[in-house]
Design goal:
The chain has 8 helices and 23 strands. It has 401 residues and is of the alpha+beta class. It has 3 domains: 9-79 and 165-254, Gyrase A, domain 2, CATH 3.30.1360; 81-162, 2-Layer Sandwich (Alpha-Beta Plaits); 255-381, Aminomethyltransferase beta-barrel domains (Elongation Factor Tu (Ef-tu), domain 3), CATH 2.40.30.110.
Length: 401
C-alpha cells in the first residue's frame, strides 16, 4: 500500500527525526494529477503554494539523468494560474511588472517579475499572453493573485483577476518533443521558446507552452478541465513509453546548474531584481509606469550593497542537500548566507547560491560555510553554471532519424 492509503501520511523529504511525517488532509489542495502521482510511486511530497508537490519518486541522480537524456513528466499543478482578463487587462498586467509588455504578442510568454512598491520581488511567474485581453501568471510560491486583486481594487481599471480551471504538467527532456508530437502532431516543433499554442490531446483541450523549470528542451501542458487529470497523465505516459518516460520531481541540481531561482529561499520580498545575478536584465527601460518603477530606477543608478551569486564548494563528496540557510564567512566574519546547495551529477561537484556583499560578488572569492554537514570551503562563482547562452533548449527535440 502507498503511504497515502495506509494512515494518510507520507514520509517527509528531509526529516532528521526518522518519525517525521507529512500528512495528507483537506486543508491543502491537490492537483488533478495527484492520484496519478501516487499510482506512479511518488514517495515524498513538499508543500508549495498550499498544494502537494511531488518531491521524490526515485534516487535524485536517476531522475537527473532521465531528465538530461530522455523525457520526464512532472506534476506542477502547484504553479497556480492567475488569469487577468477584460478590456484593461493589458494595462493591469503592465502595472505589476518591471518587464515591458507592450510588445508581448498574443501567444508569447515572458519570465516575469511581479514588483512591490519598493521594488521587491513579489513573485516570479511564467507569464503567458494566451489570447487577446487574457494573460496567465503561473506562480511561484507566493500569492500574487491576491496582490493583483489588491492592485485592481485601487486602479479603477476594467479587468478581472481570477483563478481559472488551468493546471500544468511539465514534459521535460530532449525527447519531450517526440513524445508530444505523438499526441498533437509535428506542430509541436513550431513552438518557439517561451511561446504557447492551443492543442487537443484526444478530446482534451490544452494550452502547451515551450517553457519549464529545467533549461533542457521541454514543454508545459496546461489542462483546461480539472476533471481530466488522470486522462491527460495517462495519455502522456503512453506516448512517452517508447522513449523511457518516467515521472520525476523538479530537479534541484538541474535548476541550479541553469541559474533558476526559488522564490522564498533564494530571493524574497526584500530583494529586488538588481540584487540577484542575472535578473537585472528584467528591469527593462520603458515609458509606462509600473509598481516600484521609481525605486528600481534609483537602484539602477545607485547600485546595490549585496548580491546573490553562485558558489562552488570544494567537497568532492555529494552533499545530501540543504535543510536550512547556512551562514557564510570570510576572514572569520559572517558576510552572507548560502540559500541552496546540491550535488550536480553532470558537473561532478557541489554547487549552490550564496548572498554576499557586493565587494565579494565576483567569482573566486573564498568563503567558509557552516552547514549541518560540517564546515565547508567554497568560492563564489558566476551563474548559470552551465549553458550561459541558453543554447541547450534549442537542441533537436526528436530522436535521430
Amino acid at each position: 500500500m502507498t503511504p497515502y492509503e495506509h494512515g494518510m501520511a507520507a514520509e517527509a523529504v528531509s526529516s532528521p527525526p526518522a518519525a517525521t511525517r507529512l500528512y495528507f488532509g483537506p486543508w491543502y489542495r491537490r492537483s488533478p494529477f495527484f492520484e496519478s502521482t501516487l499510482r506512479a510511486g511518488c514517495r515524498a511530497y513538499d508543500i508549495y503554494n498550499k498544494m502537494y508537490l511531488p518531491a521524490e519518486y526515485d534516487d535524485v541522480e536517476v531522475e537527473y539523468w532521465a531528465l538530461n537524456d530522455a523525457v520526464t513528466l512532472w506534476d506542477v499543478g502547484v504553479e497556480r494560474t492567475v488569469q487577468i482578463s477584460g478590456p484593461d487587462s493589458d494595462r493591469l498586467t503592465d502595472m505589476l511588472t518591471c518587464r515591458d509588455l507592450t510588445r508581448c504578442a498574443v501567444g508569447q510568454g515572458k519570465y516575469m517579475i511581479v514588483t512591490s512598491p519598493d521594488g521587491g520581488i513579489v513573485n516570479d511567474p511564467v507569464l503567458l499572453h494566451v489570447d487577446d485581453g487574457t494573460w496567465w501568471l503561473q506562480l511561484a510560491d507566493a500569492d500574487a493573485g491576491l496582490y493583483a486583486l489588491g492592485v485592481l481594487a485601487k486602479s479603477g481599471l476594467d479587468a478581472q483577476v481570477t483563478y481559472p480551471d488551468v493546471h500544468p504538467v511539465q514534459v521535460q527532456g530532449p525527447l519531450s518533443g517526440a513524445t508530444l508530437a505523438k499526441l498533437v502532431g509535428d506542430a509541436i516543433y513550431d513552438l518557439r521558446y517561451y511561446w504557447c499554442g492551443r492543442f487537443v490531446i484526444g478530446d482534451i483541450p490544452v494550452v502547451i507552452s515551450r517553457t519549464g523549470w529545467s533549461a533542457v528542451p521541454g514543454f508545459e501542458v496546461n489542462l483546461l478541465d480539472g476533471s481530466r487529470g488522470a486522462d491527460l497523465w495517462d495519455a502522456i505516459m503512453r506516448a512517452g513509453e517508447e522513449h523511457g518516460i518516467r515521472p520525476i520531481a523538479p530537479s534541484e541540481a538541474r535548476r541550479i546548474e541553469a541559474g533558476i531561482f526559488n522564490l522564498g529561499s533564494d530571493m524574497t520580498l526584500r530583494d529586488t531584481p538588481f540584487h540577484v545575478m542575472g535578473l537585472e536584465r528584467l528591469v527593462e527601460p520603458q515609458e509606462q509606469d509600473y509598481i516600484g518603477k521609481a525605486t528600481l530606477e534609483r537602484t539602477r543608478a545607485e547600485g546595490v550593497d549585496r548580491k546573490l551569486v553562485g558558489i562552488e564548494l570544494d567537497s568532492t563528496e555529494p552533499l545530501p542537500g540543504i535543510g536550512a540557510i547556512w551562514p557564510a564567512y570570510a576572514g572569520g566574519v559572517q558576510v552572507g548566507t548560502v540559500t541552496a546547495a546540491v550535488w550536480s551529477p553532470g558537473l561532478r561537484r557541489n554547487i549552490g547560491y550564496v548572498w554576499v556583499p557586493i565587494e565579494l560578488a565576483k567569482p573566486g572569492n573564498e568563503l567558509h560555510v557552516e552547514s549541518e554537514h560540517g564546515t565547508l570551503t567554497g568560492r563564489t562563482a558566476a551563474i548559470p553554471f552551465v549553458d550561459p547562452k541558453k543554447e541547450r533548449p534549442a537542441r533537436p527535440m526528436a530522436p535521430p532519424a
